[in-house]
Amino acid sequence: MWLYYVKLGVISLRRNPVLTVLMVMTLAAGVAASVATLTILNGMSGDPIPHKSERLLVPLIDNQAGDRGNVDRDPPSQLTWRDAEALWTAAAASRQTPLWGLGPSIDPGRKDMPLFFTDGLAVGRDFFAMFETPMIHGSAWSAEDDRRGAQLAVISAALADKLFGAAGDAVGKSIRMDGHDFQVIGVFDRWAPIPKYYRLIGGNYFEGSEDIFIPIRAAINLNLDFNGNINCSSSPEEPGMAGMLKSECVMIQYWVEVDDAAQRRAYADYLEAYVREQKALGRFPRELNNRLFDVREWLDFNRVISDDTRTAFWLSVGFLLVCVINTVSLLLAKFSARPGEIGVRRALGASRAEVFRQYLLEAGVLGLVGSVLGLLFTVTILAFVRHFDRNLELVARIDWLTVGSALLVSVLAALLAGLLPTWRACQVRPALQLKSQ
User: Single GO molecular-function term (predicted)?
Assistant: First the structure.
C-alpha cells in the first residue's frame, strides 16, 4: 500500500508540472542555503582530534606591563622564547613542544625548477607524536638532536615528490633551505587537521599543513627568518633576533600533552610555581593570570568561528522556514483543487488516516525530488565558496554528511510543509462532494 501511495504521489506531481516545479525549486533553494552553511559551520567547529583534545593543552603566561591595570585581562596568546625554553627544558608534562613559524626558500638544485618558497615550522621532536603526524617514511629526530639543534628535516610527501620524484627516495637526501643544508630523515603523508588548531596564531585556520619541519634550536642557531606574530610590551634591549629572544616579546606558540585530568592540575600548579619564581626575580608585574586551554577551549578563545558565520547559518535557517511556508501555501492550493477525488475515495471506504498517509507521502515524494535538486544547488554553492575564498577550501567540501543532511532536511521540510494541507484534505466531507458532482 505504501508503494501504491508513492506511485500516486509521482502521478500527482506530473499532473500539474508548473505548480510542482515551483514547489521543488522553493524547497531546493531553502535546503541548499541551509545545508551549505551547515557544512561550512560543521567544518569550522568540529573537534580536529577528538580522542585526545582534552589532553593537548596551551599554557599562557601574562607578562604584560603592570601599568595596564585591568584593561586587558587576557594574557598574550604566545610565550616569550625565554619562557618557552624554560618550560620545554623542565619537561613537566608527558610531551611538550614550542612552535616557531618559518617561510623558507627552497633551492631544488635543478635547472628545470627555480627557487621557491614554502611554509614550515621549527618545533620540538614531540610535535609529531602529540599531533599524530602520519609518518610514512623515516622518523622524527631524537632528543639529542633537539638539544644541539641538528640540521635535520621532516618534510611532506608532496614536497618530497616535487624535489625527489618519489616520497620514499627523500630519506637520507639533502634539502637546501634558506642557504643551509638539512638532511631529510622523515616524510609524512597528506595531513590537514580542520581547523588547524596547533597553529592558530599567525596562520590560516583552514589551510593544509606545513611542508617542512626542523628542530627549533636549528632555526635559532642559523638565525632563520621568523614567520609569525611578534608582540612586545617593551622594546628589546639588544638589536636583531638575538635581542628579541632575550626580551619580553611574545612570539612562540607552545603546547603540552598530559595523560589525564590529574596531570593537568599538576601542570597548572607547576606553571603557577614557575610564574611566582619569575616574579621573585622581578618579572611579571601584573597579578597571577595564567591560563591552560585544551583544544576546544583554545578554539573558543581564538574565536575560530566568527559571529558572521553563525549569523549566516541562522539566516539560512530562516530562509528555509520561509521556503517551507511558501511550500505550505502551494500544497494548500494543490490539494484544495482535488476535493472531488478525495470525496470519491472516502465514499469508496478510505478512512481519514488512509487519505492522510496518501497525501503526506505525496509531500514526501516532493521532498525527495527537491533533495536531489537541492543537493545540486549545494554542490554549486560550495564550489563557488571555494573559488571565492581560498581560506575556506578545506571546509567547503561535499561529503556524505552533506549528502545525508540535504536528503534529510529536504524530506523533513516537505513533510512539515505537507502537514497542514494534508489535514485540510482529510476534512473533506464525501457526501457534500458527491452531491455536488
Answer: transmembrane transporter activity
Q: Check: pTM over 0.85? Answer yes or no.
A: no
Find cell 549545494 and name the residue.
378
Listed range (152-156, 226-230, 379-383, 409-413) with the worst mean pLDDT: 409-413
The Cα 208–Cα 195 span in angstroms is 9
Which residue type, as a one-letter code, is found at position 57? L
Q: How many structural domains is the chain composed of?
A: 2
Q: What angle do CA 58, 55, 63 make, to 5 degrees?
A: 15
Classify residue 201: in a domain, yes or no. Answer: yes
Write out the residue range of the structural domain in which residue 83 sits: 62-289
Q: Model confidence over 118-136: pLDDT tens digits?
A: 999 999 999 999 999 999 9
Q: 119 with 78, same domain? A: yes
Q: Between these two residues, 87 and 412, which has the higher pLDDT value?
A: 87
DSSP summary character for residue 211: S
The strand pair at 212-215 and 56-60 is best described as unpaired
**Domain membership flag for residue 270:** yes
Residue with more model confidence, 16 or 63: 63
Query: Is residue 200 a part of any domain in this protein?
Result: yes
Same domain as 245, residue 166: yes
Please report which residue ranges of 50-150 form alpha helices under DSSP H.
Answer: 81-90, 127-130, 143-148
